[in-house]
Specification:
α1 crosses α8, α5 packs parallel to α6 and α7 runs parallel beside α9. The strands form four sheets. A seven-stranded parallel beta sheet has the order 3-2-1-4-5-6-11, sandwiched between helices. It is built from eleven helices and 13 strands. The protein is of the alpha/beta class. α6 links the parallel β5 and β6. The chain starts with a strand and ends with a helix. The longest helix has 22 residues.
Length: 320
């Protein structure tokens, strides 16, 4: 019997991972490590064990007496508004939590671990048409040091380095998954990211309003493809290595995605309009021309299946 420990299991990707594992391996023993037992009991299958803890405190984690073969560390803040308003707490939740989980992994002598990072570690980077950024180019992009919103990409970079340090010094079998923006089935109704805003506009028949010029390049992946990618990295990935999880066919600018939603998903019944502020009140990441490569993960046998139309169809159906 395989035993799994999944942090952040009440979040979008964490909860979908739990459900996937239970559906594909009925005998799997899963412990969900969460901040709120009440929330976990509402969103997770009944046959999942729940452990409640604040992962920023290593002492509490040590008292839980947990054990596992496989560990997937999903816990992280993802709301841009919180990155602007509480950058100290966001940094703590990324960096301290990751080190605490890695220390736990070292003590447990796990078989494999995946840390969920983000494409934001690439920062602002130029990828001319025809070029895609590989995992080895993350250091090439720039991140503004003196900006509150940078707590997230810089925190993720530091967390990745901590993962590598634990691999090199303690042989912790950790792999890093750099996720493109992921959506489809199961997105929470409260999600405020642009793809969810676009889907609501389609559903409600109202125009899409952009608060930027929409020039930033977006890299996307369907939720089911992302889950299968994480599992492929867990089972087949090389220790100490990073892997992009992206469907290269879904790379497009924010403007192109808005136009896709208006034209293809809404059948041209709505339009794209612009309302651009003079400051960064919306907390959007800096524009980037990043085009991610998925070649390294595909070399493990993974192949994405969900195109943008599939992803939006799932998302809009969830809103019914």
């Amino acid at each position: 019997m395989n035993t799994y420990l999944i942090t952040g299991a009440t979040g979008y990707i964490g909860s979908m991972l739990v459900k996937h594992i239970k559906e594909t391996d009925e005998k799997a023993d899963i412990t969900a490590l969460v901040r709120s037992r009440v929330k976990a009991e509402k969103v997770l299958p009944h046959n999942v064990q729940i452990a409640e803890a604040d992962l920023t405190g290593r002492e509490k984690l040590a008292t839980l007496n947990l054990d596992c073969d496989y560990l997937i560390h999903c816990a992280s803040v993802t709301a841009s508004a919180k990155m602007l308003s509480h950058p100290v707490e966001v940094t703590e939740s990324i960096v301290n939590t990751t080190q605490n989980i890695l220390e736990f992994a070292r003590q447990c002598k796990i078989k494999s671990m995946v840390y969920l990072s983000s494409m934001e570690v690439y920062g602002s980077i130029e990828c001319p048409a025809g070029h895609r950024a590989t995992e080895y180019e993350a250091s090439r992009g720039t991140v503004e040091l003196l900006a509150s919103r940078s707590c997230y990409p810089l925190g993720k970079r530091m967390a990745e380095n901590i993962c590598y340090a634990y691999f090199k010094e303690y042989n912790v079998p950790v792999k890093i998954a750099r996720l493109a923006q992921t959506f489809g089935e199961g997105v929470p109704a409260s999600d405020k990211r642009v793809f969810a805003q676009f889907a609501r506009a389609v559903k409600e028949g109202r125009d899409i309003v952009l608060h930027t010029q929409g020039r930033s390049m977006g890299n996307y992946c369907g939720i089911h493809d992302a889950i299968s990618g994480i599992m492929a990295i867990l089972e087949k990935g090389a220790d100490g290595e990073a892997y992009n999880i992206v469907n290269e066919a879904n790379t497009m600018t924010i403007r192109q995605m808005a136009e896709f939603a208006a034209d293809k998903m809404a059948g041209g019944r709505i339009h794209v309009k612009y309302d651009i502020a003079d400051d960064d009140r919306y907390g959007y990441a800096a524009d980037t021309a990043l085009r991610l490569s998925g070649e390294k993960l595909m070399a493990l046998g993974w192949k994405p299946q969900e195109d943008m139309g599939n992803m939006y169809s799932q998302l809009i159906k969830e809103m019914e």
